[in-house]
Amino acid sequence: MNKKVEHPIRKVMIICAKANLEDVYAALVMANGAVMEGIEAKVFFTFFGLDAITKKRMKNLHTATVGNPGMRMPNGMAFPTLLGAMPGVEAGVSAMMRSQMDKLDIPPVDEFLDLITAGGGEIYACKLAVEMFKLKKEDFTEHVKDIITIGQFYELAAGEGTQIIFT
Description:
Layout: E1 11-16, H1 21-36, E2 40-45, H2 81-84, H3 89-103, H4 109-118, E3 122-126, H5 127-132, E4 144-148, H6 150-157, E5 162-166
């Protein structure tokens, strides 16, 4: 009989490349959950995901209503893409999502970043995307530890028990 060998997760490297509420919060919830479990967590924001850590944009994230196959109406029926393209619908759906998150006591992005970094998690911005969007270190929240290359990201990922997660 083979004895089961356990390989615990020691580190998670989470990549967030989109700025919609559901992808940003997926990254934040996973990072916060990791630090609460004593797992090292590093979150790498790239491309449009940079909006989540950019001072001017982080409080104005939206839920994508067009082309979102998981979008459902309150009665569970599929949300028609054409409806999502109408003026004001995305803002309304985003407000509804924020309201639901408030009811569940889910913190806003900046408070989530406080929790993650206070627990030892680290937040990084992608150097290529930062240069592409002509951003600077001062454009980001103080939670951003550094602006790094993908090579540096992989160096940080080194070690046994590391998982890389893409949201």
